[in-house]
């Protein structure tokens, strides 16, 4: 790992991202998911890692290491003007913005795709049950049809989670 690297750690169900400052510190969002305040902070790399393996995100077309750290420091100094938001302003988007000038989130894009895919399976696979109810002396009856989605939705959500993990496993960008 070197100055200006986009680094991340794998947590349960998500990755946490930051910028390596080259002096054993990392600038990152101490987002509410990790139990922090949702602000950009600079802290020791060991605290950022929290005993997890630090990985480096590799991709083409990024700024120079000095400019990346300058951009991260600028965001740190002005963090009172912005707030953490899981969808619109998260740690991964912060790291991409510092390194490439464009906020991006692989996790959001692919997690949403997996969720929509799993949910569409749930919607396209309803279970229909017809129940007959006896009427007056069994002569006149009522038939009721019900549609049950709960088990299928659960499977769809499970499929979404597994789809997301499968997409993560196939991602070789680091």
TrEMBL record:
Per UniProt, residues of the LRAT domain are: 6-107
Tell me which domain of life the UniProt entry assigns to the organism this sequence originates from.
Bacteria
- What are the TM regions of this chain, as residue ranges? 112-140, 146-167
Which residue spans adopt a coiled-coil conformation according to this UniProt entry? Answer: none
* Pfam families xref list: LRAT
Could you tell me which InterPro entries the record lists for this protein?
LRAT_dom (IPR007053)
Q: Which UniProt keywords apply?
A: Membrane, Transmembrane, Transmembrane helix
What is this protein called in UniProt? NC domain-containing protein
**What organism is the protein native to?**
Rippkaea orientalis (strain PCC 8801 / RF-1)
